[in-house]
Design goal:
Layout lengths: L4 H13 L10 E6 L2 E7 L9 H4 L2 H4 L16 H11 L8 E6 L3 H9 L4 E6 L4 H10 L2 E4 L7
Parallel strand pairs: 3-4, 4-5
Antiparallel strand pairs: 1-2, 1-3
Helix pairs in contact: 5-6
Amino acid sequence: MRPTLDEYFMNIADIVATRSTCLRRQIGAVIVRDKRIISTGYNGAPRGAAHCLDIGCIREQENIESGTMHEICRAVHAEQNAVIQAALHGVSTQGSTLYCTHQPCAICAKILINAGIVRVIFRQPYPDNRAMKFFEEAGVEVEVVVRSKKN
């Protein structure tokens, strides 16, 4: 069967995630406006910095629980990288949809809201309820799309 547009763009987010250099979670994000991909991002170290794949994970080394202390991490989140890439190339994210393999954290939620993203779709939950509260308060539509049986 032909995938819906949401399934199609989520499948692309899954492929984008394969570029991740994070040892804990491989996350991919795709920003779409008017049925066109305007930017993608995956989680990994900032440009020019060593990747966790090469030097290990600070969060694992310091036993930091998932969903907490986001600032203690080498990685720029996939959603952040997607917004940054759009900005670097002069592409507006106003009125767009973000497709992400995982629920955004609270920090990413605030960035997405201010970037003008009006819809967020993800597959996997994340232990950060503040993000969902921020989206609700800002009027951002949020949906969970499960993997289709053929995938």
